[in-house]
Write a structure and sequence with these properties.
The protein is an alpha/beta fold and 305 residues long. The protein has a single domain, classed as Alkaline Phosphatase, subunit A (3-Layer(aba) Sandwich). A 7-stranded mixed β-sheet has the order 2-3-7-6-1-5-4. Helix 11 packs across helix 13. 51% of the residues are buried.
Length: 305
């Protein structure tokens, strides 16, 4: 089976190709376009279906009224269970109480660990978290969807020490926020170097997940300048990742939980579809995906081959 590298982008949909409201339609983002077969990430991008490269639009509404939210969207994405249906509504940003048993039993880390062909290090979560995150989460017993998946599956949540040893990536990619906002002495990386580091981490595991949430924050703030800064940084990150990635042996997945950043005219999430980019060995496994609930089942099925 290929090693799978999964980059999860929070709050990135495929919206109308309107440069006035959609920064993905306005900005020059060559690495994004490379993942989409040479087209901008908008609703006008045609489906790309090749054996080693897919770019599709996925439904994130899940047959539930209202605006999709991170808690149920991410739980659906990382289990294959329609958690908006389980909760009875879209809910977020944290996991809904009704979805926690689903996350405990069916999260992607646990499902990969249960496969018959064990890997010495089956799964990894590449994000590093600062000490104050652990203090607050433990005090409130309030974990994000991804960190709760890690706790339920026994996957280590990486720390400041991991980051200093070069074995993790920060949510801001470079580590600058850890230095200026959190006061931690950590090495600074370029975005390209962060992408290369993630690619390197992925070589040690059957499945590696990285979460990037600044896209959702920029969408909520409705700031074109912030959206431009975040997207250009992410494009440089994808450049570094793709330049060091081996598509003949490994698979890169990129998708999201709901729309937001693609429409800066509104502060809320959107009901737009979200992108699914699959690049490398086994990409065709995802050709029948139609919603975010289809990603983990296809991923697990591929991992069993």
């Amino acid at each position: 089976m290929p090693r799978i590298l999964f980059v999860f982008l929070d709050g990135v949909g495929l919206g109308p190709p309107d440069p006035e409201t959609n920064p993905l339609a306005r900005l020059d983002l060559p690495a994004f376009e490379r993942l989409a077969g040479g087209r901008p990430w908008t609703a006008a991008a045609p489906p790309l279906i090749r054996d080693d490269h897919l770019f599709l639009a996925l439904d994130a509404n899940l047959g539930v009224e209202g605006l999709p939210q991170s808690g149920t969207g991410q739980a659906t994405l990382f289990t294959g269970v329609n958690c908006a249906r389980v909760a009875g509504r879209h809910f977020g940003p944290y996991p809904h109480s009704r979805t926690k048993p689903v996350l405990a039993r069916q999260n992607v880390f646990r499902r990969i660990a249960a496969l018959e062909r064990p890997h010495p290090q089956p799964s990894a979560f590449a994000n590093a978290y600062p000490p104050r995150f652990f203090e607050r989460a433990k005090k409130r017993n309030r974990w994000t969807v991804t960190t709760l998946c890690c706790l339920e599956a026994g996957v280590p949540i990486r720390t400041l020490d991991d980051l200093r040893r070069g074995r993790a990536v920060t949510a801001d990619l470079t580590g600058a926020d850890w230095r200026t906002l959190l006061g931690h002495d950590v090495p600074l990386l370029s975005e390209e170097a962060a992408g290369a580091r993630l690619s390197d981490l992925g070589r040690s595991h059957a499945f590696t997940l990285f979460e990037y949430f600044l896209t959702d924050k920029a969408g909520h703030r409705q700031s074109p300048a912030e959206a431009e800064r975040v997207l250009h940084a992410l494009d440089r990150f994808f450049t570094g990742l793709l330049d060091s990635f081996d598509p003949e042996h490994d698979l890169l997945l990129v998708t999201s939980d709901h729309g937001n950043l693609e429409d800066l005219s509104v502060k809320t999430h959107t009901r737009h579809p979200v992108p699914l980019a699959a690049f490398g060995r086994g990409a065709q496994q995802f050709r029948h995906a139609r919603s975010i609930a289809d990603v983990t089942p296809a991923l697990v099925e591929m991992a069993q081959d």
